[in-house]
Design a protein that fits this description.
Strand content of chain A: 25-35%
Helix content of chain A: 25-40%
Largest sheet of chain B: 7 strands, antiparallel
Number of domains of chain A: 2
Structural class of chain B: alpha+beta
Strand order of the largest sheet of chain A: 4-3-5-6-7-8-9-14-13
Shape of chain B: globular
Oligomer: heterodimer
Largest sheet of chain A: 9 strands, mixed
Structural class of chain A: alpha/beta
Number of strands of chain A: 22
Number of strands of chain B: 7
CATH superfamily of the largest domain in chain A: ANL, N-terminal domain
Strand content of chain B: 35-45%
CATH architecture of the largest domain in chain A: 3-Layer(aba) Sandwich
Number of helices of chain A: 11
Number of helices of chain B: 5
């Protein structure tokens, strides 16, 4: 099913015209209202009048995460406070949070793209959707909430955590769909299996995002919850969840290009790369009023595919990100993504995907420790069996990561799970 | 003759063992035997307790990772050669011991033995007229 066929299946030339028209307006808006962009464009010698359409996008300045921090809290807003109706903020792990302001029209766009996303996951007005993303400053809860209402389904605004209550309402209300982080979905799945509740739940579909996850984790969630699991992508700086979404063919996420223009650039030269090449994903949210950023560098590495999808949509598709480069660690010169560790643990039947990477630096040498929760069902009370398991994890990890790691077995449920978003990395190197 | 032993996986954190014994004390669970297998960064506590079902339940409720395994508790005279005689029988019967621990009580000593096949071990020991602890002697009623 398709929420808005006219746009989602539009001729690419028509899409381009819509993008161009909106970009021209947006550039004028930020030039007039945001001193930061006014100055940046001046430095580049570009006037709003020089931008006739998407062909000129490549000449515009970039925006990076530190620009948002430097202009904290409202410095990049293009609308006066009287027009801003909602504020969200991302949980910055270091320093100040990233703030996003939305006008009424921004919230309408957001509900619209979430409605398109939920429709891709097969959700209709006949569904009951349990929103187990955290409600509050985090964009996940409220973002998805209003999209569910827009579709006309019934929303259960339960927010994250309180697993007992989640399972209770899931049974009592007969939830048919769930939206939360993939790590929380896996946790709920484990609890359902453990409690023998599989026969009592009616879930058929799930929309998961806000943290990178692997195909192995998808299989596990699908098996445990008995659903089809869909990946939703987004980031606070662009709008929140709903920037792109997988259709039933799950061959990449369709970007809602009429609102968010994607580009792939070479992160070193900053040159735009052709479709199909791997590079850093950049977004320009052309319809936004509150905080439209010019060419926001996501630091996510992916590829774009423009061929028409089997579902009928012409919207460009992005491959699943290997991970945000924010999550990427460089350990002893090697790029390490937490998702790689996850895929190793999921492939092994004796371990659960609950882990934490701890990086330290001693005498200028990086050391990686991976804490792995032992699985309640599989651990043996013989030291030699556990030591052999450790050895196998260590061997598999080093063959995937290309660097060695110390494995530490920890008690089940001992790794902190906050807001359903697992804290995967602790970097104690002070660099 | 089969005794259910509790095994608890413990991270190397101070106070964890005290917490465990506190929970058992508060629930009136007696510990008859206990041993700790310590690896570099974790330990495995093995215990024979008076109320195994209750102990498993309350420890799980407090977030401990608990498993149960079957063991045999052999009673030998508390004097030189007491243990040797019993072990020679097991060796003659080609039984591999995974682990064991022992404690004395007056003139006798109890040896907790874990092997892959506990019913088989019990049969061998009984055939050789060795005394085994009955579950009823350990479990609290």
């Amino acid at each position: 099913m398709i929420w808005d066929k006219d746009i989602e299946c539009a001729d690419r030339e028509i899409l381009r015209e819509i993008q161009s028209e909106r970009l021209v307006k947006m550039v004028k808006r930020v030039y007039d209202n945001v001193p930061f962009y006014h100055q940046k464009m001046k430095e580049k010698g570009i006037e709003p009048g020089d931008v006739k359409g998407v062909d000129q996008l490549k000449h515009l300045p970039f925006t990076v995460k530190t620009d948002l921090r430097d202009n904290y809290p409202f410095g990049l807003f293009s609308a006066p406070q009287s027009e801003i109706v909602r504020l969200h903020a991302s949980s910055g792990t270091t320093g100040k949070p990233i703030v996003a302001g939305y006008t009424r029209k921004d919230l309408e766009i957001w509900s619209e793209v979430i409605a398109r996303s939920l429709t891709m996951a097969g959700i209709t007005r006949h569904d009951i959707v349990q929103v187990a993303y955290g409600y509050g400053l985090f964009t996940g809860g409220l973002g998805v909430h209003y999209g569910v209402e827009k579709v006309g389904a019934s929303v259960i605004p339960i927010s994250g955590g309180n697993t007992m209550k989640q399972l209770q309402l899931m049974q009592d209300f007969g939830s048919t769909a769930i939206a939360c982080t993939p790590s929380y979905a896996a946790f709920l799945g484990e609890s359902i299996i453990k409690g023998g509740l599989r026969g009592k739940i009616k879930l058929k579909t799930g929309v998961f995002g806000a943290e990178p996850w692997t195909e192995e984790m998808r299989t596990q969630i699908q098996d445990m919850l008995g659903i089809k699991a869909y990946d939703i992508y987004g980031l606070t700086e662009v709008i929140g969840p709903g920037v792109s979404m997988e259709c039933e063919h799950q061959c990449g996420s369709h970007i809602f290009e009429d609102h968010f223009i994607p580009e792939i650039i070479d992160p070193k030269t900053l040159e735009v790369l052709p479709h199909g090449e791997l590079g850093e994903l950049v977004f320009t949210p052309v319809s936004k009023e509150g905080m439209p950023l010019l060419r926001y560098r996501t630091r996510d590495l992916t590829r774009l595919h423009v061929e028409k999808c089997a579902c009928g949509r012409t919207l460009i598709r992005m491959e699943k990100c290997l991970g945000r480069s924010d999550d990427m660690l460089i350990i002893r010169g090697v790029n390490v993504f937490p998702s790689q560790v996850e895929s190793v643990l999921l492939e092994m039947s004796e371990t659960s995907p609950h882990y934490q990477l701890i990086v330290t630096r001693d005498n200028n040498l990086d050391a990686l420790e991976i804490r792995v929760e032992i699985d309640d069902q599989f651990w043996s009370d013989e030291v030699k069996v556990l030591e052999a398991l450790k050895k196998r994890i260590s061997h598999n990890i080093s063959s995937v990561l290309g660097i060695s790691a110390t494995i530490k077995l920890v008690e089940p449920r001992s790794i902190e799970r906050s807001e359903g978003k697992a804290k995967r990395v602790i970097d104690n190197r002070h660099i | 003759m089969i005794i259910r032993q509790l095994s608890v996986f413990l991270e190397d954190k101070s106070g964890r063992l005290t917490e465990l014994t506190k929970i058992l004390a508060e629930n009136d669970v007696n510990i008859s035997a206990l041993s700790i297998a310590d690896a570099a960064d974790y330990g495995i506590i093995r215990m024979v307790v008076g109320r195994p079902d209750l102990a498993v339940k309350v420890l799980k409720e407090h977030g401990f990772s608990v498993n149960t395994t079957e063991v045999a508790c052999l009673i030998v005279p508390n004097k030189p050669g007491g243990l040797y005689k019993a072990l020679q029988i097991l060796t003659d019967n080609k039984v591999d011991i995974d682990y064991m621990y022992a404690f004395d009580s007056g003139s006798r000593a109890t040896v907790v033995i874990r092997t892959a096949n506990i019913p088989e071990v019990i049969k061998i020991l009984q055939d050789h007229k060795l005394e085994l602890l009955k579950a009823s002697q350990v479990y609290q009623v």
